[in-house]
């Protein structure tokens, strides 16, 4: 059985749908700090299954111990964490506490339960301003926000643990820019409050919930002057997790890090165009000043995941836009 922490969040819910479809048993835990209980109903509708769910905070060791004693867990995917770059600048203590202490609490309980396989959600924010493009895993790490630094510390904790104790099987996955939704339109990304990510923001503009998209800078040295990022379809990203779990199962012990991206940059303007096409009308936007700390271009060298996990992203930006819009059209 696979434990998904943060299982009702954007990525956790898509992982749950996929691995249930593959025939695995799952148990989800989430403290609902950035998700809603309604996602569990949507997942049941999508999979036709009653999915075990426990509402706890991963920093609650006693609560987690209870989960490990109740369910025959053999592998863990740790999605639970706080992910807003801007919020992390305002509330660094909360970010270090949730991301670092949450991981440490989980690892203590896993160790006690003799469950030593974990896939960890990390981020391309670890790299900061890229030294070179595309970015390989060995690139310099220079995160510029508490969020990125909290994930860097988590990676270090995992690496030190794998070094100190036998038997750990650890895959750290550094996501670039997840976007899109499940093709059913039943689950997707529903941010609480103002979206931090481009795609949900565009979707809210398309639904007339916000008047226009702010495009931060149009004078970068890129294809059309707007920032370039490595958007990756959530279903591709989740495929990477399934492949990582399968690969870990073949290893006696291992620690490794993988970039998950398409390996291709797409500009903000190109993403807007894909969305306009999916929605069938122009999405209003205004160009405003660049934001401090934003890089012109960020995209992955994902060849390591391809070589070791046999994984490669296949879905296009158009698919991300179409699937996101289908989900938003279904939202009440
Ligand atoms: N989506 C992205 O753009 C992105 C990019 C890089 C990395 N990540 C990382 O991937 C992971 C999942 O991201 P997501 O987009 O699904 O975020 P999300 O906020 O949608 O999901 C995270 C889930 O974890 C839960 N949670 C948070 N803290 C918890 C705690 N202490 N105990 C129990 N549950 C807790 C939240 O309620 C939420 O349901 C996060 O760790 C995030 O940092 C996300």
Given as residue ranges, the uncertain stretches (5+ residues, pLDDT < 50) are: none
Provide the spatial order of strands within the biggest beta sheet. 3-2-1-4-5-6-11
Q: List the secondary-structure elements in sequence, H or E.
A: EHEHEHEHHEHEEHEEEHEEHEHH
What would CATH call the class of the domain at 2-179 and 232-261 and 302-313? Alpha Beta
The global form is globular
Q: Within the CATH hierarchy, at the fold level, what is the topology of the domain at 2-179 and 232-261 and 302-313?
A: Rossmann fold
Instruction: Please report which band the strand proportion falls in: under 5%, 5-15%, 15-25%, 25-35%, 35-45% or over 45%.
Output: 15-25%
SS field, number of helical segments: 11
Characterize this entry briefly.
This protein is α/β, with parallel strands linked by helices. The chain has helices at 10-21, 38-47, 61-70, 85-90, 92-112, 146-164, 198-206, 234-249, 268-279, 303-309, 317-330, and strands spanning 2-5, 26-30, 53-55, 75-78, 117-123, 169-175, 177-179, 213-216, 228-229, 231-233, 254-260, 266-267, 285-288.
Summarize the helices and strands and which ones pair or pack.
Layout: E1 2-5, H1 10-21, E2 26-30, H2 38-47, E3 53-55, H3 61-70, E4 75-78, H4 85-90, H5 92-112, E5 117-123, H6 146-164, E6 169-175, E7 177-179, H7 198-206, E8 213-216, E9 228-229, E10 231-233, H8 234-249, E11 254-260, E12 266-267, H9 268-279, E13 285-288, H10 303-309, H11 317-330
Parallel strand pairs: 1-2, 1-4, 2-3, 4-5, 5-6, 6-11, 7-10, 8-13
Antiparallel strand pairs: 9-12
Helix pairs in contact: 1-2, 1-8, 3-5, 5-6, 7-9, 7-11, 9-11
